[in-house]
């Protein structure tokens, strides 16, 4: 395996790629103390195990890593080895600068050609992810060496190709992530999981793409399956949840209707009012008047 | 043209049907709502989401199928899953989610009650087995484990009572659904004072008791406008899903029984008196005066087979559990009756009737070196249906069964229907509308309108689409295995408890 190590600011090779903080391939043939202590990650890091067997600790949890495993480390995650050493073997990694929103979601930069919705979905899913290790994913290794070759050879169009490859890597990983966490047999279980994600973040403007991705499916198949399972389109099902939650808040006097609207994911109190009236026959204000009582 | 709408508030979904007055389906729609299992033994549903889902589906059905064809809705008749318990405050605002029939948190209360001297009196007066599903025990649980909520409680409702209250402002429960609370005295048709005393509540905290034909008040103006209905549309309180499935199967005051097997299952009969089971295994739900639906429920139905399919089925086409299950069924037909000596106890979820043992667990018994995958498939199906047969056998201790009306997606699979006929050695009839709960609710509403003179006459309208004739030789074989099945189910009682304790 060819070894390389590009770092932002030092090699010059990354000058046109300010979003790539680091790109490396390392063959570790001797064990050294303090070579891999637990540290808080800066940027989004993707590691690929090429050779060897590793025992790493990510956010306090131990992971045994084998060849062809991909490890996803989010900004702020703590990664390292218990004893501080890097074990024998070879690994690839890339570290990408991403913007980290307050709610933990990731935003890529202008370099990415992912659309806004796609980018939001990738960010959302990486953030929701609780299985940071993807096993048997040789694709990661292939894409990472592809990025290295482009940067090394500087052939025509290499800037575009590098950015495309990073996009490809993120898409591939996100897809794999959703597939791996949804063993495909149990639609109802998968649906419950997706439902739970919606409820946990009801104020988020969920798109069908994001919902489908949590389920590890394309939107066409997903919409079809949700329709036959629930009787509703994914978006209408989401409206059911929003209105049901809103009703509970309306029955308590202490929250304003605008706050309820935004907390339950409506664009505005106007949007909330129209949807609510269409469904229940009452405006939220009328509903509240009929249902709240002073004690 | 008039039509009747039926609303079934089922275990996982609301199913709404529209029938013309001849009983022909004009349209139907469903809407799913989730069940939350936040802890072992907890099973909850959000009353607001159930209500909103019901509104949404009803509105779509009215707009797309009823108003466009200028139908006039004569009545809307409700049915619902049994044993749900929702606590509301004195203003009718829900205090958290409803506990569903599958909620087992009152396990300890049920066990204590069973062992107490109250057990006999309670069964004699309410006619229902003592089980954690019963709202009587759920309320007792709440009093002990959540005293703050108990103290705040204005009323204890069923999901159906809550939904009806939202629509009309009335707190009502029909006799049949009230039976499923474990608190109705089926002889006096009033709340049983000893039950209320045990639960620690007053009868003012329960909805008002009304017959199944009772009107549930007038739709609130806003809903009339929103639905495009007038105050002439009658809202009928209706009954429970189990009772309606029995009526819809055409089983009424006869020596036939009905078998329903969906995810779970039940065997039921209708008669003019309570089946008084000394071992307290049989439920008795009062429908109208001197008319009881009696029988036993099972936890082990199509859900158990689905479990098998998920573990051992072939999933080349992603997500398609249905086609996977039908492939398995096909494979199992290659094996002879009795699965060549392989026997399965289907108690993956514990069992209700007839063994009433929440600790019961599943088992494959008699495995030998020649058994292959298809033997396991067939044994699984046979085991589920032996469980159903054991409920039927329990009922025959009280009354003869001559002929079976079978419904539910699992039981109406031709292979399963034939197996039921063979096990019972009785003919099996399949009716021409698979959704017997809705048909039952339609027949109830039509009787209320005077289209039929009585429920007996209404039930007689139900037509048989298909008949399965029992095969004597298969019956003989099945009975040899059933004998072992039955003795294992009781003999392993100790071991069931010990293994359940470890799980």
How would you characterize the overall build of this protein?
The complex is a heterodimer of chains A (295) and B (503). Chain A is α+β, with helices and mostly antiparallel strands and 295 residues long. Chain A is built from ten helices and twelve strands. Chain A is 44% helix and 19% strand. In chain A, strands 1-2-9-4-7-12 form a six-stranded antiparallel beta sheet, with helices on one face. A four-stranded antiparallel beta sheet of chain A has the order 3-8-5-6, with no helix packed on it. In chain A, strands 10-11 form a two-stranded antiparallel sheet. In chain A, helix 1 runs parallel beside helix 5. Chain A starts with a strand and ends with a helix. Chain B has two domains: 2-243, 2-Layer Sandwich (Nucleotidyltransferase, domain 5); 249-431 and 471-503, Nucleotidyltransferase, domain 5, CATH 3.30.420. Chain B has 18 helices and 22 strands. In chain B, the strands form seven sheets. Chain B has a seven-stranded mixed beta sheet with strand order 16-17-15-14-20-21-22, sandwiched between helices. Chain B has a five-stranded mixed beta sheet with strand order 3-2-1-5-13, sandwiched between helices. The relative contact order of chain B is 0.12. The model of chain B has no long low-confidence stretch (mean pLDDT 94). The interface between A and B is medium-sized, with 30 and 32 residues.
Task: Give the second-level CATH assignment, the architecture of the largest domain in chain A.
Answer: Sandwich
Q: Could you name the CATH class of the largest domain in chain B?
A: Alpha Beta
Q: What oligomeric state do these chains adopt?
A: heterodimer
Estimate nothing, just give the exact number of structural domains of chain A.
2
Total of domains of chain B: 2
- Strand fraction of chain A equals 15-25%
- Note poorly predicted spans of chain B: none
Helix content of chain A: 40-55%
Number of helices of chain B: 18
Stretches of chain A where pLDDT falls below 50 for ≥5 residues?
none
Content-based structural category of chain B:
alpha/beta
What's the story with the biggest beta sheet of chain B?
Answer: 7 strands, mixed
Shape of chain A: elongated
Distance between the termini of chain B: 58 Å
Helix content of chain B: 25-40%
CATH superfamily heading of the largest domain in chain A: Jelly Rolls
The spatial strand order of the largest sheet of chain B comes to 16-17-15-14-20-21-22
CA radius of gyration of chain A is 23 Å
How much strand of chain B? 15-25%
């Amino acid at each position: 395996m060819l070894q390389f190590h590009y770092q932002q600011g030092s090699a010059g090779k990354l000058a046109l790629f300010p979003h790539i903080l680091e790109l490396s391939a390392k063959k570790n043939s001797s064990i050294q103390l303090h070579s891999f202590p637990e540290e808080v990650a800066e940027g989004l890091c993707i590691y690929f195990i090429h050779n060897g067997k590793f025992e790493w600790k990510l956010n306090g949890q131990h992971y045994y890593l084998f060849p062809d495993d991909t490890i996803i480390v989010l900004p702020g995650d703590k990664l390292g080895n218990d004893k501080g050493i890097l074990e024998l073997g070879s690994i690839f990694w890339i570290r990408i600068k991403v913007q980290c929103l307050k709610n933990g979601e990731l935003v890529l930069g202008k370099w990415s050609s992912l659309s806004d919705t796609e980018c939001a979905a990738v960010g959302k899913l990486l953030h929701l992810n609780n299985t940071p290790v993807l096993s048997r994913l040789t694709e990661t290794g292939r894409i990472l060496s592809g990025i290295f070759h482009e940067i090394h050879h500087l052939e025509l169009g290499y800037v575009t190709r590098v950015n495309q490859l990073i996009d490809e890597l993120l898409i591939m990983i996100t897809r794999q992530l959703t597939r791996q966490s949804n063993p495909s047999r149990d639609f109802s279980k998968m649906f419950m999981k997706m439902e739970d994600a919606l409820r946990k973040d009801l104020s988020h403007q969920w798109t069908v793409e994001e919902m489908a991705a949590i389920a590890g499916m394309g939107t066409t198949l997903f919409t079809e399956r949700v329709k036959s399972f629930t009787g509703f389109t994914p978006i209408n099902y989401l409206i059911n949840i929003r209105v049901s939650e809103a009703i509970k808040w309306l029955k308590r006097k202490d929250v304003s209707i605008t706050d309820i609207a935004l907390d339950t994911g409506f664009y505005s109190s106007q949007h909330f009012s129209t949807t609510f009236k269409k469904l229940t026959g009452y405006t939220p204000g009328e509903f509240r008047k009929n249902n709240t009582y002073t004690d | 043209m008039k039509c009747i709408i039926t609303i079934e508030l089922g275990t996982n979904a609301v199913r709404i049907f529209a029938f013309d007055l001849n009983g022909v389906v004009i349209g139907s729609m469903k809407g799913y709502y989730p069940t939350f299992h936040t802890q072992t033994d907890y099973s909850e549903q959000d009353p607001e989401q159930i209500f909103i889902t019901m509104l949404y589906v009803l509105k779509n059905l009215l707009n797309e199928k009823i108003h466009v064809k200028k139908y006039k809705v004569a009545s809307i008749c409700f049915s619902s899953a049994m044993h749900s318990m929702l606590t509301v405050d004195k203003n009718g605002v829900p205090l958290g989610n409803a506990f569903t029939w599958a909620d087992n948190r009152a396990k300890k209360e049920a066990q204590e009650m069973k062992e107490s001297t109250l057990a006999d009196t309670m069964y004699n007066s309410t006619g229902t087995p003592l089980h954690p599903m019963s709202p009587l025990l759920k309320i007792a649980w709440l009093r002990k484990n959540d005293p703050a909520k108990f103290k705040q409680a204005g009323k204890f409702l069923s999901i159906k009572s809550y939904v009806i209250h939202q629509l009309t402002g009335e707190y009502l429960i029909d006799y049949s659904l009230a039976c499923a609370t474990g608190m109705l005295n089926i002889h006096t048709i009033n709340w049983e004072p000893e039950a209320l005393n045990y639960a620690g509540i007053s009868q003012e905290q329960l909805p008002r008791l009304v017959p199944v034909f009772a009107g549930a008040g007038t739709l609130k103006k806003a809903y009339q406008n929103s639905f495009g209905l007038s105050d002439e549309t009658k809202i009928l309180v209706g009954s429970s899903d189990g009772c309606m499935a029995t009526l819809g199967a055409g089983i009424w005051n006869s020596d036939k029984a009905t078998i329903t097997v969906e995810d779970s299952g039940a065997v039921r009969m209708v008669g003019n008196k309570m089946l008084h089971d000394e071992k307290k295994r049989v439920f008795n739900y009062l429908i109208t005066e001197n008319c009881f639906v009696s029988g036993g429920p099972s936890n082990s139905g199509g859900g158990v087979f689905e479990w098998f399919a998920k573990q051992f089925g072939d999933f080349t086409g992603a997500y398609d559990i249905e086609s996977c299950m039908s492939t398995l069924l096909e494979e199992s037909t290659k094996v002879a009756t009795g699965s060549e000596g392989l026997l399965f106890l289907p108690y993956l979820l514990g069992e209700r009737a007839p063994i009433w043992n929440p600790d019961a667990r599943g088992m494959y018994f008699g495995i030998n070196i020649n058994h292959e995958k298809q033997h396991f498939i067939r044994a699984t199906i046979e085991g589920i249906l032996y469980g159903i047969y054991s409920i039927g056998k329990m009922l025959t201790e009280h009354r003869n069964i001559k002929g079976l009306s079978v419904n539910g997606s699992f039981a109406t699979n031709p292979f399963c229907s034939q197996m039921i006929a063979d096990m019972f050695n009785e003919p099996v009839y399949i009716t021409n509308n698979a959704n017997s709960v809705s048909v039952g609710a339609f027949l109830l509403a039509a009787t209320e309108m005077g289209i039929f003179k009585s429920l007996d006459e209404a039930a007689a309208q139900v037509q048989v689409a298909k008949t399965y004739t029992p095969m004597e030789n298969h019956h003989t074989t099945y009975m040899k295995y059933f004998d072992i099945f039955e003795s294992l189910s009781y003999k392993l009682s100790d071991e069931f408890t010990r293994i359940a304790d470890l799980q």
